[in-house]
Amino acid sequence: MKIAVFSTKPYDRDHLAAANAGAGHELTFFEAHLEPSTAVLAQGFAGVCAFVNDRLDREVLDTLAAGGTRLLTLRSAGFNHVDLDAAAELGITVTRVPAYSPDAVAEHAVGLILSLDRKFHRAYARVREANFSLHGLLGFDLCGRTVGVVGTGQIGRVFCRIMHGFGCRLLAHDLKADPGCEALGARYVSLDELFREADIVSLHCPLTPQTRHLVNAGRLARMKPGAMLINTGRGGLIDTPAVVAALKSGHLGYLGMDVYEEEEGLFFEDLSDTVVQDDVLMRLLTFPNVLVTAHQGFFTREALDNIARVTLANATAFETGEGGMCTVGRG
Fold first, then answer.
1. Enclosing H/E stretch for 90
2. Alpha-carbon span 120 to 43, nearest angstrom
3. Domain 102-292 has CATH 3.40.1360.10
4. 3 state SS of 176
5. Across-strand partners of 172?
6. pLDDT tens for residues 42-55?
7. 108 is known as an active-site residue
8. Which one, out of 24, 202, 244, 256, has a CA that is 20 to 30 A from the CA of 108?
9. Catalytic residue (choose from 295, 302, 309, 319)
């Protein structure tokens, strides 16, 4: 199958090319993001491979369908950026990679917690300048703390296991309780109770209309003074201006985020020689108790291998009609 691969970096090309050695697809790589102005590049390609910050609204999908695209194979787990109704109407099958590496994202969330708590990022910069003072680096023991886990799918389950290993008390919230989390002692509670009782809240749920701005001014106000908020899910799970206000007031003690609601055009790009125009993000970066990483939670060798393998396996299953695709649909 001829597949146009958008938003590619060298690491994407390397891993996809390696996985394709046994798949035999005809891959054409584009560095450009998929958007209305670039969708015409997919003319004549039966398949299009897209990433998390590509635009996949009705306008783009109309162009893809007119150009002969029948398969949209996402190299991501999330699909909130896809107009699924339009895809269905246009006869475009949408596939994804549902579980490329739960360990990678869960471990990154724990890394954010440890860095914010023990201030590794600040200590590293300080020692590099021969400043060996401990002033301002005071942390707290994780053992005995209450951790609230919003979303206990595969990533949330791994996160629970790790935090259980630290000796934390686990509170969880999801539409359905996970027996593996319950076996670790996780107690399923309402969102209000979770935000009220947790010292650390970590978000691992998908972004849907129901979860957009799940963390808003009201829920932030319910959190313990000085509590920590971690988001490695999707940026739209939190109302960013509300979080900025909670940080300014001192009510929110720590924020760690690997995703940002307006990250399109920012994350995955080198903007070090430009003036970043996003005032909200720049304000966040001024807080000493905020740690932002640029959507790198998935970025391990194992995860990239799995993403490439499953993405191309989805394309092969679609082409051969043998089934086994990880499809996405309304439901």
1. helix 84-90
2. 48
3. no
4. coil
5. 149, 188
6. 999 999 999 999 99
7. no
8. 244
9. 295
- Please state, in angstroms and rounded to a whole number, the distance separating the CA atoms of residues 57 and 218: 31
Q: Tell me how far the alpha carbon of residue 295 is from its chain's centroid.
A: 6
pLDDT value, residue 329? 66
The two domains 2-100+300-320 and 102-292 share their CATH topology (first three levels equal) = yes
Kind plus residue range of the DSSP H or E element containing 227: strand 227-231
Q: Is 161 a catalytic residue?
A: no
State how beta strands 200-203 and 227-231 pair.
parallel
Catalytic residue (choose from 96, 197, 263, 309): 263
For 150, half-sphere exposure in the C-beta direction (CA atoms, 13 angstrom radius) is 26
How is residue 303 written in tokens? Answer: 């995860």
Residues whose CB is less than 8 angstroms from the CB of residue 286 and which lie 6 or more positions away in sequence, other chains included: none
- What's the 3-state SS for 188-222? ECCHHHHHHHCCEEEECCCCCCCCCCCECHHHHHH
- 3-state secondary structure at position 96: coil
Share of the chain above pLDDT 90, in %: 94
Q: How many C-beta atoms surround the C-beta of residue 285 within 10 A?
A: 11
DSSP string, 118-175: HTHHHHHHHHHTT----TT------TT-EEEEE--SHHHHHHHHHHHHTT-EEEEE-S
Q: Domains of the chain: which residue ranges?
A: 2-100+300-320, 102-292
Catalytic residue among 25, 234, 261, 309: 234
Cα separation, 97 vs 88, whole angstroms: 19
118 confidence band (pLDDT: 50, 70, 90):
very high
pTM value is 0.91
> Which of the four pLDDT bands, split at 50, 70 and 90, describes residue 100?
confident
Question: Which amino acid belongs to residue 159?
Answer: F
**Which CATH fold topology does 2-100+300-320 show?**
Rossmann fold (3.40.50)
Is 81 an annotated catalytic residue?
no
Residue 225, judged by CB atoms within 10 A of its CB (0-12, 13-18, 19+), counts as exposed
Please state, in angstroms and rounded to a whole number, the distance separating the CA atoms of residues 27 and 45: 10
